[in-house]
Amino acid sequence: MNRLADYDLEEIKQIVTAQFGQPAYRAKQLYAHITRFNDYDEMSDLPRAFRDALKVDYDAHALKIEKKFVSVDGTVKYLYRLGDGNVIEGALMTQSYGNTLCVSTQVGCRMGCAFCASGIGGLVRNLTAGEILSQVLCVNRDQGGSVEKRAITNVVLMGSGEPLDNYDEVTKFIRLLSNKDGLNISERNISLSTCGLVDKVYRLADEGYGVTLTFSLHASNDESRREVMPIAKKYSLSELIPSAKYYFEKTGRRVIFEYTMIKGVNMNHFDAKRLSELLKGFPAHVNLIMLNPVKEKNVKGCTKEEADRFMKKLNEMGVSATIRKSKGADVGGACGQLRRSYIADGNKDE
Ligand code: SAH
Q1: Which of 19, 94, 146, 192 is most buried as measured by Cβ atoms within 10 A of its Cβ?
Q2: What is the residue range of 11's domain?
Q3: Does the predicted TM-score (pTM) go above 0.85?
Q4: Which residues contact 249 (CB under 8 A, 6 or more apart)?
Q5: Strands 190-194 and 212-216, how do they pair?
Q6: Are residues 37 and 119 in the same domain?
Q7: What residues does 278 pair with on adjacent strands?
Q8: In sequence order, what are the residues at sequence separation of 6 or more whose Cβ sits closer than 8 angstroms to the Cβ of residue 190?
Q9: Domain check: are 35 and 175 in the same one?
Q10: Residue whose CA is closest, atom 19 of ligand 1?
Q11: 89 lines ligand 1 (CB under 6 A)
Q12: Would the CB of 334 count as within 6 Å of ligand 1?
């Protein structure tokens, strides 16, 4: 079934006029309803007959909230059900400066990183732009937000999936989300996290996107990176780091590196030294992440003291690095964990 949220205003105009023979001004009305995550019953300024005809071909909603968990730290974890029965997840993190929604870009993932729950079971399918956008529209409404007064100020593409492995839909999503006709969340407030699909990083820069780019690094040399991230077999650090520099030069946006600390694997003195050499000469920041243990995976995190020591060492070597506060751990906070446990509990994808 088609979904209304997959289309931009221009495409909605085409549908409204060419497919349904309605006056063009109805496109703006319909688009406003889509942005508010309204159901057909709520679109009372549109003629009933038009709505009934639309309903036959287009779902008003690309997804619905299946379950919602609130963490002791205020993080809200959402489990959504898509039109085809698949489930995906997301998390809303509240901070003093605003609320950040973490969205999924694929059902499952084919990157197979050693510590990540999203890749267990592989890639099921890509999400469409409208399915990604609907996560934002739906939670904005669920949290009492509107178009004028958004409940979500920042969006991070850090849920299940590898965003650059779904390039066309993800970039359309960015355009839909940042569009002034829609929720109008600026690219400055959107972060995209990638395991490092280097060719797509160049493409993103060349096509003029200005989102904050975050690279999942997780290792200081190719050898150990290949052990935790299969994508490192395709792209070496000597390709990945120049692409990050290129993105910075094109966009002026400081690049962020994510580094999940794994005991006995990536956090000794030599790792710190190599990291400082890798990141020399351009404004980069390292987000150190405490590993969120995944029961199917055989990797161990470190203690807070060990993390602090590693951070200090990096700082002494001139690397800007901070430890990212772990949020929502009690409600399956890390990528893919909630969907994974939901399916493992016998709630099959349909
Ligand atoms: N595919 C993208 C975005 C997904 S995940 C990427 O690789 O960047 C967002 C971040 O969380 C990534 O850095 C990912 O490696 C990390 N992550 C995944 N599972 C984790 C876990 N169990 N503990 C800590 N970090 C994890």
Answers
A1: 192
A2: 2-59
A3: yes
A4: none
A5: parallel
A6: no
A7: none
A8: 154, 155, 156, 157, 174, 177, 178, 211, 212
A9: no
A10: 116
A11: no
A12: yes
